[in-house]
């Protein structure tokens, strides 16, 4: 029998929590593989011939790299996209599918890698993503980026990591102003990690309840709440739908953007088309800062 600790959803059995958060199982292996192939194919198509600077080391401590895509004349606003994969899969190479659409709208894209679990702790992964923001702020102008117009977004685990750039208390240590992240768009994110301590992912990320709480954007102070669009797919996992609703309420942005007809994996692929609700929301957000 599970020991309950009081977080929302903790009354569920371990099997029920797995159903709520195991979106790969929900999709099934065939559909999941098709989605991953689309990530790779759409990213390759998006960056083919696009101006930019791939493979830049942004963090000397880890040696991790990022790609800059879609630069043009003068510094451009930048969308920094953090990939998902439950902190233990995927890379920047499958995660640039929005770069051409944004380039055509006068916006650059930055896609960082981060060291995957279990080689890195979740605390270290958070540090690396924040270091990527710091790199854009310090060095972006040299690469055609506007360091005063950084918008961060991410999907799934990348939505969690986006949330960890939205909260306060970390910027000064990296020499950043409190408003370095001007706006954010987490998609199908995890904002309270305490349920993760009881699902299969924790065999890899190894969280206890105290560490999970300390890494939960929903539970952390945010003196400054930057403009944000909090989005989720209509056919997402129940845990992601509930967490998105709760984070939207917490952040004060109103009801989340629920994208009809999409699931946990294909919702972000709407960013390849400027006419979708996802793209319109992102473009409006970037243009507002």
From TrEMBL:
Pfam families per UniProt: BD-FAE
Domain BD-FAE-like residue range list: 73-168
SUPFAM superfamilies, alphabetized: alpha/beta-Hydrolases (SSF53474)
InterPro entries given in the database record: AB_hydrolase_fold (IPR029058), BD-FAE-like_dom (IPR049492), GDXG_lipolytic_enzyme (IPR050300)
Gene Ontology molecular functions: arylformamidase activity
Keywords: Hydrolase
Origin: domain of life: Bacteria
Enzyme Commission number(s) from the entry: 3.5.1.9
PANTHER family on file: AB HYDROLASE SUPERFAMILY PROTEIN C4A8.06C (PTHR48081), KYNURENINE FORMAMIDASE (PTHR48081:SF33)
Name this polypeptide is given: Arylformamidase
The organism of origin for this protein: Actinomadura namibiensis
